[in-house]
Amino acid sequence: MTDAIPPAPPQPTRDELVAALRTRYGTDDVTPFDAVTPTILHQLRHRSVRRFSDRPVTEDELRAILTAAQAASTSSNQTSWSVIVVRDQAHKEELKPLIGDQTFIDKAPVLLFWVVDLHRFHLLADRAGVPAAATELLEATLVGFVDAALAAQNAAVAAESLGLGITYIGGARNHPEETAASLGLPPNAAVAFGMTLGWPSPTDRARIRPRPAPAMVVHHERYDDARMLPELDAFATRTNAFFAAYGRDFDWVAYITDHFRDYHDLHGRERLREALTALGLPSR
Ligand SMILES: Cc1cc2nc3c(=O)[nH]c(=O)nc-3n(C[C@H](O)[C@H](O)[C@H](O)COP(=O)(O)O)c2cc1C
To answer: What is the helix (H) or strand (E) element at residue 25, kind and residue range?
Structure first.
């Protein structure tokens, strides 16, 4: 007896795709494609969710999401990442001021902390009585960040396919040593970023934010710098219009130039190398 083949999910219609592309890019000037799948349509409809309903995230749902995370590619089959699941309300409240003090953090039913984890390589090296010198290199740290990001994004897509919502939390790098201590991380491990997870509240007003035109990020054979400034200005126009529709006066170019002007907007992340070194990830 063979396993039953599950029914194919409905194929998105051309109209659904065009509508999703228009929202995704914040313009009616979009180029649809034939190679659309339910997965792609779902990805086009991503939006960060910062307001959650009371509906709990079940252990079964979490298992599905984290299993999808584990299916992501991992550099050299090493698995340089871990994830810490935080559900305890008191623990969320302890972590909140460490990770940006953002209002929605302790309201999320689940916090996930995606960890660069080189600890297990030390365990194996120590047991074998050999050094683990290559874990000290920037390459090893970067591999851990890349692995963690790939796993996390697989989790995000899986969560959204179930109808749940996520928001990444870069603020989880604001106080790396304190956050690591709160999560009981071993040496040679650090949080790459956090993620809130929960069912979107019916009152959540967040809309799909426009992305730059493909011409800004997709190049063929060689990077085309000549079109970059006009594309940046076009994206700024779309983004500013998007926020104006919310009644928010926002200037994307001013925001970017202000963020990168100096270190004022980093909330502690400007000392990340020092913090990583203290946590046993010297990143030489
Ligand atoms: C690594 C990373 C860190 C982020 N950190 C935060 C954060 O600390 N707080 C927050 O509200 N959103 C955070 N975000 C969400 C972004 O602001 C959001 O993805 C972006 O504005 C685009 O909006 P969208 O996800 O709704 O399309 C983060 C996103 C990424 C990828």
So the answer is: helix 14-25
Nearest to 194 by CA among 269, 103, 95, 52: 95
In whole angstroms, what is the distance from residue 169 CA to residue 112 CA?
9
DSSP, residue by residue, 165-179: EEEEEGGGGSSHHHH
Which parts of the chain sit beneath pLDDT 50? 1
Q: Across the chain, where does the E strand assignment appear?
A: 81-86, 110-117, 165-169, 189-198
Considering only CA atoms, which residue is closest to atom 1 of ligand 1? 170
The secondary structure element, H or E, covering residue 257 is helix 252-261
Residue to mutate (ligand 1; options 167, 207, 209, 246; most atoms within 8 A of CB): 167
Question: Is any ligand 1 atom within 6 A of the Cβ of residue 237?
Answer: no
Burial of 231 (0-12, 13-18, 19+ CB in 10 A): middle
Closest CA to 198 of 101, 53, 60: 53
The packing angle between helices 252-261 and 228-245, to 10°, is 110
* Closest by CA position to 240, among listed 269, 232, 78: 232
Q: Quick one: CA torsion of 25, 27, 29, 34, rounded to 10 degrees?
A: 40
Please give the Cα distance from 230 to 151 (Å, whole number): 34
| pLDDT tens sequence across 49-76 | 999 999 999 999 999 999 999 999 999 9
- Please state, in angstroms and rounded to a whole number, the distance separating the CA atoms of residues 173 and 180: 10
How many angstroms is it from 48 CA to the middle of ligand 1?
7
DSSP 200: B
